[in-house]
Write a structure and sequence with these properties.
mainly alpha, Arc Repressor Mutant, subunit A, 2 domains, 4 helices, about 70% helix, about 0% strand, WH-like_DNA-bd_sf, coiled coil, Transposase, Homeodomain-like_sf
Length: about 110
């Protein structure tokens, strides 16, 4: 399970907006990200880069799996695992009861 981010969602959105706003003032996007990270007190520029890339993917500006799709896949995988467990329980119960029916019973 992923560790929750120490940075609030609003700070992440603000950092992404700031990178877009200050990008023309810097020779590269990476330089803009480093500047925004230092201004906002974010540990590394790599963190800001990941937020910017995630925003680009979510907005359709970059290919990749969106946050929503990723959450859907995760939920579906969880549901599949639950259904597999339920099937195993049902199979075990069915074989138990089938064995009970096959066993000869003495009538008195």
């Amino acid at each position: 399970m992923a560790r929750p981010s120490p940075y609030p969602a609003e700070l992440r959105r603000r950092a992404v907006r700031m990178v877009a706003e200050v990008r023309p003032d810097y020779p590269t996007e990476w330089a803009a990200m480093k500047a925004v990270a230092s201004k906002l007190g974010i540990g590394t520029a790599e963190t800001v880069r990941q937020w910017v890339r995630r925003d680009q993917i979510d907005n359709g500006n970059r290919p990749g799996v969106t946050t929503e799709e990723s959450a859907q896949v995760k939920a579906l995988k969880k549901e599949v695992a639950e259904l597999k467990r339920a099937n195993e329980i049902l199979k075990a119960a069915a074989s138990f009861f089938a064995a009970e029916l096959d066993r000869p019973h003495l009538r008195s």
